[in-house]
Predict the 3D structure of the following.
Amino acid sequence: MDYMRQALDLAELGLGRTSPNPAVGAVLVRDGMVVGRGCHTWAGVKHAEILALEEAGAQARGSTLYLNLEPCAHVGRTGPCAAALIQAQVAKVVVAAEDPNPAVSGRGLAMLREAGIEVELDEAHREEAERINMAFFHFMRTGLPLVTLKSAVTLDGKIAAPEDNSGWITSEQARAHVQKIRHIHDAILSGIGTVAADDPMLNDRSGLERARPLLRIVADSQLRIPLDSRLVESCENDVLVICTSVAPSARRAALEARGVEVIVADGPGGRPDLRQIVQILAERRYLSLMIEAGSKLNWAALESGIVDRIFFYYAPKILGGMQSLPVAGGLGRRSRTDAIRLNRVRLHQITESEFAVEAWIPREGR
């Protein structure tokens, strides 16, 4: 029986429900039987280890705990889980990954060892454990949110036709998959061009519980966003518009009167500073940002260096033509040798004829 597999599956149930904390699953086993399980959610407050201990009761003594992430050793909203495991007299703890949080960072495991509890690192599942909490690991290592550029494209790399753009590029199944990806992000960014053309909601339509509302961000240099747009009308302290200093103060006042937060962030070319947007999110402990925008903003994001990974959904279609918009427009790179390179490429089969490409922009140390 792969008990760590069960712990990883439990952890995945917490995705979108724990931010800014990591998603954790715990499985307690005694005499070959599962006696306790736990899955952390922000609303539930209690960590996965505590929930598993409570379910196991007296059977926790002498048991083995399987955990996707090192138990905490510091006091936050709850007491340290490592101390609770010691008190419950758990005999062994198997973890798939150490916690990158400097407040933990090996201290939880050290506490267990000092108390005589056997500790085992499950290297076989480490990569998957880190992937489940990729945004948390990224934030703890860099101090910045993980930024994903998502787009739906034709096989020839186009995202929009020059005239009629009614309908969808990808299938309903692909769009449902996008909602699952959107659900595990803390914030979403689009540009005023997309908002003006499509009047999107930019909301999480997965129907799944969230730890906090998805922060909807619009890059809008001159505050052209319509006051009757669906974004503004649906605002419940979850819409942020980033503009420049040339934006009319009257427009700012009108948006703020409707509950929209407006921040001035002057960037190159008279556009909002994307790096500053990422820094603002970091200061507010938003662990992840998803960009769903048009051709110009996509390229601006790539060129600014804020993008960590791409997630492109490919449909079996070809638009062709010189006027159809590419996934990333702007000036682009002037030679093939200067192309933005990616690694860790992974394919996701969406339907029989659709797939998504996930890839990472290399950074030092990864």
In short: Residues 103 and 171 are 44 Å apart (CA to CA). The mean pLDDT is 94.
